[in-house]
Amino acid sequence: MRFLRRALLFTVVVLVAIVAGAALWAQWPRTPPSGEDVAAPGSGPVTVTWLGVSAVLLRDGDSAILIDPFFTRKPAKLGLLTNRPVRPDEARIRDWLERLQIDHLDAVVVSHAHYDHALDAGVVARLTDAQLLGSQSTAQIGRGAGLDDKRIIFVEAGTQVQAGRFRLRFLASRHAGATGGRPRGTIAEPLVPPAGPLAYRMDQTWSIVVDHPRTRLLHHGSAGFEPGALEGVRVDTVLLGVALIDNLPAYLDAVVGQVAPARVYAVHWDDFTRPLSEPLRPLPVGVDLPAFFAQARTRYPAVRFQTLPLGDAVALPRAQEARTSSASPDA
Fold it and tell me: pLDDT (tens digit, 9 = 90+) per residue, 16-32?
């Protein structure tokens, strides 16, 4: 009898969770940004091209780096929930490299080694004759993709690497969300696909300062932060992850308030279980772009908050065009 009561209670809890989840799914804002919320494409000395999640291509006509490439965008939702094994889709990767007219990259950079940031990194580095930069887990992903150790650069907090005309500095950060970034830990041996998404262990999470003679930006791909890590850093542009934010005012103050940018582009808001060939939609839970823009613009009215168009280059501001005064919250 006790077993039957427990089984009934478990069944009721599961049904309530399913109903609540379905209601949340149905009501969550999923309209993609449009109009003034999206930056206009344009050319300039240095451009950024957003490629979904926190993947961005930075180029100046001579040098190019790609951060967090994820063209494969598999598995779908059910496969993600069941940890279905996945491998980089080399055909998709080659197609996107061709569309972007990339035959060489100075560096492929990984901000942390979860599969939606790192799955394709080793293959992209191999196809573009690039150096692969990241944590120990990123190195194991590169080895699993067939990269020689000479092409892999292991980074630690404070590491600086020159890649063409771009200079990258890696600062410690934290993953977003109450889970703290599971799966955590370090990948201990070369990760040879196919493997489930849970095999891609986070390792270290980086906030990456990218210096160029014409501009300076911060790639902050996950919406957590290490208190004080950005103290004294100043940039013109921030690429700001906005999924699973725990405390938006604290997050904005720790990143935007510290680095005093002229522009902030929201990234990592899209549903990465959908291919890039389909219209982008916000993640079904964990992202509320209208609320983010409204609160961020109210708190930092002098900063321009937008997102980026998919696959189109946007000109980054020249250093002399950016504000030099620190951003202050309008509390």
Answer: 443 344 444 444 556 88
Residue with tokens 């990241």: 134
Rounded CA separation 265/237 (Å): 8
- Residue keyed to tokens 């990259």: 105
Burial class for 197, CB neighbours closer than 10 Å (0-12, 13-18, 19+): buried
Domains of the chain by residue range: 31-321
Q: Count of alpha carbons within 13 Å of 284, Cβ hemisphere only?
A: 10
Domain boundaries 31-321, CATH class: alpha beta
Q: Measure the CA dihedral 307/311/317/322, to 10°.
A: 20
Query: Hey, what are 111's tokens?
Result: 């901000």
Judge whether 261 and 303 are in contact, CB under 8 Å: yes
Classify each residue of 249-288 as buried b or exposed e, where b means 16 or more C-beta atoms within 10 Å of its C-beta: eebbbbbbbbbbbbbbbbbbbbbbbeebeeebebbbebbb
Q: What is the per-residue pLDDT across 152-171, written as a single tens digit (0 to 9) for each?
A: 999 999 999 999 999 999 99
CA separation for the pair 300, 85 (Å, rounded)? 42
CA angle 103, 106, 111 (to 5 degrees): 110
Residue 240 CB-half CA count within 13 A: 31
Please report, for residues 103, 124, 129, 139, 167, the alpha-carbon distance to residue 146 in angstroms, rounded to integers and kept in the order given: 18, 11, 12, 11, 26
